[in-house]
Amino acid sequence: MRAEIDQQPAVLQSLLHRRTIIDGISREIQRRDVRFVLLAARGSSDHAALYAKYLVETVLGLPCGLASMSSLTGYQASSSMTGVLWIAISQSGGSPDLIEATSAAQAAGAVTLAVTNAPTSDLARSAELHLDLGAGEEQSVAATKTYTAEILALWLLVNSWAGRQNPVAAGIPDVVARAGDVDISEVADRYRYAGRILTVGRGYSYPTACEAALKLMETCHVAASAFSGADLLHGPVAHVDPTVSVVVISPGGVGGRLLRPVLEVVADRGAEVCVVGDPDLGAGIATPCIAEELTPLVQIVPLQRLALELALARGLDPDRPRGLTKVTRTH
């Protein structure tokens, strides 16, 4: 896991070198009458899909949803998907429900795109279009480099589709490398024996909160829960007390502004609070500055390292979490 965290800048650089391939995919999408986007994924890839949902809605102005695959695979629901772009995201491309749902979406008239790290996988073959992450084999069960590769691939695709020329792309690997050097030792010491952790985000940092909670659950066996800051205040905040550790992930910009009331509430309830991102919001983990929509690429890196260090401090093997395998086959 440590090696694969460190490989992320190189993986992202390699992906940037294949922008012409991504531009070709976007041109094919532009040629179709796409009016709606559906995203299908599981696990870490589902958090990348949630990120893409924000991108599609804010950059492209298209309605976008997260697909309920069991509606197609279990309940055998049928509907017209003409005008729909179906994007299936999976590092392995091996989950049967994702493959079956993608085939069903294509049969219903959708344009289907698979985003995988496995170009010869069944999912890649089942979709009309395929975007290969090219991240190399990921041996640790906990996804790190494939997750950030998915984030960047989806950002590049949406940028190309929107016709945006974004010069910041060239500097992304360097910013991610600097995020990997951020000192997390003090936070790791504070959270070494934490029994309950809440991760909280808003807007572009909400997918990061979800992914961070998953990493903590997978590697450390911590009871971690992720919330949108708005949803936290609608009831779950009753769960917050001095025995709970709260990681607030601020993307700056709009999302950071919307998180300020959440910080005030959890602090008033006596929780142990760590802010990731904006140092103006409090102590914690300050990450390198980048445009708000790209913060999920940067802010997850120290949180991956935090999950790794907490697992090792607890005598656990983060590469082989109990009861988990690299490819999860759901139906």
Automatic annotation (TrEMBL):
Stretches assigned to coiled coil: none
Gene Ontology annotations of biological process type: carbohydrate derivative metabolic process
Presence of keyword NADP: no
Keywords: Repeat
Top-level taxon of the source organism: Bacteria
UniProt-recorded name of the protein: Glucosamine-6-phosphate deaminase
A Pfam family per the record: SIS
